[in-house]
Design a protein that fits this description.
Chain lengths: 337, 80
Amino acid sequence: MKTKIVSIVLSFIAWILIYTNLESITDTIVYSLLQLQKGSPFTFALHFFVFEVPKVLLLLTLIVFVVGIIRSYFSPERTRKMLGGKKLFAGNVLASMLGIVTPFCSCSAIPLFLGFVESGIPLGVTFSFLIAAPMINEVALVMLFGLFGWQTALLYMSTGLLIAMVSGYIIGRLKLERFVEEWVHAVKVSPVEFVEEKISFSSRVDLGIEAVKEIVGKVWLYVLLGIAVGAGVHGYVPENFMASLMGKSAWWSVPISVLIGIPMYSNAAGIIPVVQALLEKGASLGTVLAFMMSVIGLSFPETIILKKVLKLPLIFTFVGIVGTGIIIVGYIFNILY
Amino acid sequence: MTIKVLGPGCMNCRTLEQRTIEALKKMNLEASIEKVTDFQQIASYGVLRTPGLVVENKVLVQGRVPTVAQIQELLTSYVA
């Protein structure tokens, strides 16, 4: 335990030292070591890459570690208990927020759906959870924070929450229970008592480290590729190139972005650096935000997984309502900014 | 001893199955391992997260892939 504390404290100090000196380290590498000339597109792109990759990876490591510890205090079982007996609206609000902190992977979407519905949690509340959980995740938030700044990250989180709450509420009010596959209601859950393990703080720290290994180990390549493409766009694509395509004046760009985004299955780590570069070339924030939300929040594979428990009308309603919510958010931000 | 691995067949479920086999081998245990891929059956164990490890109808692990050593530890209480 003692050595663990020491090594974590040392890593954190190293983290701060590297993070606060990244700018000068990058300058040294690009201008002094490689002796590249300032001002050329290649230097610009390379500088961007050398600076952003370690920055984003450092942020990712720290946040995933902290979130990993926080998540160890939550579980789907506990979330289900907390949501039990909650009415619409209050239930939607709580479910959306729990969707952020409850550990969730889309491969568990079906057992989770069954478990929620079976314990009597309303369909609309279950949907609020299922919308918020993938859309608002720590990887997306870190990437947004690192590349766009905290305002955009906060914006993404709050509008994502709002979409999850409202969409779930609407789905609940529409009374679509009949479009849930019949066999779902036939599932008899044997009342297995779930024993909540007592976990020491030390093993929660281990869980944080495990989360870093798993998540950062999975996304670092996407971060690299995404930032490489973003760097290329930064250096070589002319200013205002995107203005006519994804700019404010192009009113149709928001729905088109969402339509393109839904079948796209890229994780946040790969898509956000590219999108950030587009923003600099004249794309507008609302359009960009809408595109990201539809890529991350409404993914095709997940919808196909849900097909096992939901009939088509309910799937279309779900995609339609969330998609409309995202489009509205896109327009609002195009008007505001 | 009957062991069941719950999961629709994703990466994690296969890893869990392999590690369980390995753990059994290390402990020189004989056991039948059954894969449960049907969601209806998975849900009937009250499992909300896959993969799940069920030994003698008791859910020992869910939502994570324990190491071989951890599985060995979990199984020891069933040996005696």
